[in-house]
Specification:
By secondary structure, this protein is an alpha+beta fold. It has 4 helices and 6 strands, in the order H-H-E-E-E-H-E-E-E-H. It has a single domain (12-159), classed as Beta-Lactamase, CATH 3.30.450.40. The longest helix has 18 residues, at 142-159.
Length: 161
């Protein structure tokens, strides 16, 4: 695995096609936290998103896990904000404009759009959520959702070993 992720100068779909094999290689690391940390970093810097991170389900709230970006909210309640809603509904949420999402939790005023995907544990329940923010309005499409579902499968392979 190289020291840097190089996927600039490509379309977003081409960036994902380059990035996904690198994420699979990073997932081979035996230590869960090291693998997750590197995967989050690779997504942030490989794709150029504003903020990328995981929130882990602990004691009926989401607690900040590995992330890359500005300082983030540390705890999010069940059903609260985009992350808590994705957890509650057990489904992906794409928000074109975070200011139009009722109950949005503004960890950073620079975040403009967001995609959040549930990550399932061995028991079939949500174990964490993958949260990706952009500093552009309406930055996420069906292509992002499809590719991030592949990313979530990689993350699930790590946490469900």
């Amino acid at each position: 695995m190289s020291d840097s992720i190089t996927v600039s100068g490509y379309t977003r779909e081409e960036k994902y096609l380059s990035l996904l094999p690198q994420l699979k290689a990073l997932a081979e690391e035996a230590d869960q936290y090291a693998a997750l940390g590197n995967i989050i970093s690779a997504i942030k810097y490989g794709m150029g998103f504003f903020w990328v991170g995981l929130y882990v389900v602990k004691n009926n709230e989401l607690v900040l896990g590995p992330f890359q970006g500005t300082v983030a909210c540390t705890r999010i309640g069940f059903g609260k904000g985009v992350c808590g809603t994705a957890w509650k509904n057990k489904r992906t949420i794409i928000v074109e404009d975070v200011n139009s999402f009722e109950g949005h939790i503004a960890c950073s005023s620079e975040s403009k759009s967001e995609i959040v995907l549930p990550v399932f544990g061995k028991n079939g329940e949500v174990a964490m959520v993958l949260d990706v923010d952009s500093d552009l309005i309406a930055d996420f499409t069906a292509v992002d959702e499809t590719k991030f579902i592949e990313v979530v499968r990689i993350i699930e392979s790590i946490i469900n070993r």
